[in-house]
């Protein structure tokens, strides 16, 4: 049974454009087909590869341990590339792998030009790049430029005196305030004050995040040059790009601290550096959670992609209210606001927020309906490791509360769950014996089967990455529906946000003259009356139409 057929049979999800009635299922329509693997190879070789790729975020520490010390590492990750390839992943994003004091899980870098020895060596990283590229997979890495660790040599020097060569590389003040920094003076994101007294230098330094994460002073041109050199260092090694951490916060000013003009200018410099290396991309972590437009410049001079947090961080609420309006609004905003060529980065979870399982409040249909939007809306999906297994949260805290979503990947039911032969650095998440790859791999109704099927449906179909998207008027707040189309093919995706059966009237005549359900329950179908989409409670589905 093909994965797609398996999906029909097993998802609790429906897509039906003209009625999901049991007796009205249309004859399978004959649509033109292509050699999808060949199409995929071609799309992923082109300049627009990142718009067609499925990305996958990995916490190296928690993915695969290769030497039994309980800490995931680069060699371990390399040994799992075939798993990712089979799942349908085209590119991986590595959370920080540089040396770190580990006060913020690696987002406190102590050396920008090396690999955390717990994770391996530069040679291990180069071997990972080679192994990924051999499989036609790309690797991007986290680039954390707003701040360093307080253990970084730059900060050690800067704090040593008021007159050393790097004295002005960080943001220093005689008092725990600065009139030129009108934000965050009272409180940091983590903790009570954004200013920390350094007893050696006898001044306060500014930290937007933990006290062990002093902000770099980008008003010093040497800092600009040094950090652009960090990008060059990794690009020269062959890395395919960067996910740029809190990049809007680089520069502060008296009034604003988020993506002020000076920060935009820096991003444009970074983009020029990236463009010196063909085929590399940068994706922004916006600080503005409801509008990423500012990060995309004119579509070719700032970021290639920015995360769509208006959906990614807030999708759980519309399921709670059973009202799609907020999701309609956030996708309309990106459709209307984005410059040509810019691309949404679509997430439903990450290392910063509770796992999709938790956000869905344990309701697999919510998780699947949200993932179906993520995987059918116009944009590039970034799957967080373990989402495809519906990993449960952990309860041990090593660094901070976010560790609940950073527990080890679960490969099998053995004591170390295939992650380690030793003692894991953090306890496994809940229900590890019931929800792991070994259990889910061949279970037709598993979360893994769901992801595997939808990713197969995306494979090689350019329409998902670059085709047009219309958010359809459905005549009801309970149903979210998308129409995706390009010159070759078209799809309708529909999601019933509610816990009752719904019939949506799609305000687009002739949408389904021919329709074939490609994902969703067998009993669901697209009606033949020109635009009626019937969705049982808590269901979602995808139809190919023409
Ligand atoms: Ca290890
Ligand atoms: Ca800053």
Radius of gyration: 24 Å
- The averaged pLDDT comes out at 91
Q: Could you give the distance between the termini?
A: 25 Å
Bound molecules: calcium ion
Task: Please sum up the structure shown.
The protein has 546 residues and is α/β, with parallel strands linked by helices. The chain contains 17 helices and 18 strands. A hairpin with a 4-residue loop joins strand 5 and strand 6 (203-206).
What does this structure look like?
By secondary structure, the protein is α/β, with parallel strands linked by helices. The chain is built from 17 helices and 18 strands. It has an 8-stranded parallel β-barrel with strand order 1-2-3-7-8-9-10-11. The protein has a 5-stranded antiparallel sheet with strand order 12-13-14-18-16. Helix 1 (3-10) crosses helix 16. The radius of gyration is 24 Å and the shape is globular. It starts with a helix and ends with a strand. Residues 1-23 have low confidence and may be disordered. One calcium ion binds at residues 146, 208, 215, 249-250, 252. One calcium ion binds next to loops.
